[in-house]
Amino acid sequence: MGLVVSAVRKDSIAASLPVVAGDTVVAANDMPIRDLIDYSFALADEHVELRVEKAGGEELVLEIDKEYDEDIGLVFDQPFPGLRRCQNRCLFCFLDQMPPGLRTSLYVNDDDYRLSFWEGNFITLTNAGPHDLERIAGQRLSPLYISVHTTNPDLRKQMLQHPRAGLIMQQLAFLKSAGIEMHTQIVLCPGINDGRELDKTITDLAGFWPRVRSIAIVPVGLTRFRQGLYPLKTLLREEASALVTKVERWQQQFLKALGDPLVHAADEVYLKAGAPVPPAELYGEYPQLENGIGLVRQHLDALKIWLGGLTEPLGATQKITVVSGTLAAPILQEALHPLRRIGLDVRVLPIRNNFFGPAVTVTGLLTGKDIASQLKGKNLGRLVVIPSVCFNDDGLTLDGLTAADLERILEKPVVTSRDPRDWIRVLKAAGSGH
Asked: How many whole angstroms separate alpha carbon 242 and alpha carbon 321?
């Protein structure tokens, strides 16, 4: 019980207290501290009594007066002690399809409701017992992000390979009664949870509206390392097209009945089908952007606005190369075409995913080595732009390369971009010679 302090921020309230790294915060305002959620709840007050256990066993009670919701400057190395790992053996698990030798963090598969609330991670609730659900309700841990996949109890147990997977409808009902907002996802596996099963799942989840605020349909991802596992199929172009049509019907039905489109297909589905992505109004506040729902639309709209504001030529024509996964490359090339009018010759270069296999077509799963090997020796122009989705928070690709590494390999300046605003900054700088 408690949180172990790993650092004390300089010039913070805690810097003036007798607290150092290695001490343990065990309670606040007489409430035991189990994790960062408890700690944050306790600190959302102007007066806090903090009980701290020193490394030698001595206990101190520290009285702190602060602004409401002001952080006092303690840093914890393990903010969620006892992190719950996934106990499922999902038929479609992406981690089972990964080779050894990548970053260690890529093999960590959590299924912890605390991280669902805190960071937006998707959970299955198979390891959430009655006490966990009561805590979620009592502390109003909302919203939660829940991987449902199917509401058919027997099919869900088969897909997740967990005996508690069939409890999903009861769990969702409890969360609805507690007023918890939920964002749900369905990893669509052709021949398993599509067709009538998908219709039932959508209908069941819609019954929990307005607590279920979104339903995402994401096609299963398969890599070349999928060996000795349950045989699965990728979503074919004609199946993607049929799914787009079905989602459009659901959206119109829910808009009429609920005033909310509710269900969304991943951007990947529209790109694979060769269909236009929906307009922004169908995505609302983009609640599942990190799940690939509406990311293309948001980027296209932002690009259109910013490109529309560029009227002055940036000097002599400059050629640059933009990296993309094979799926999004055509639509991105079209979106960037207007840059020609101000003197930027942009070539979007689709990178084939040789590492995971050609069935993996999204930009975020490109490795540094694939990017380097397919760009090396080509006429790349003045610089190379790589979407920041290819890098983690430490600036590393899946296989541990940095932008600086790629610069050395390609012998060209390499920049990363986070969003369309970044695109414009980078492209203008490239064109103006800065």
From this structure: 34
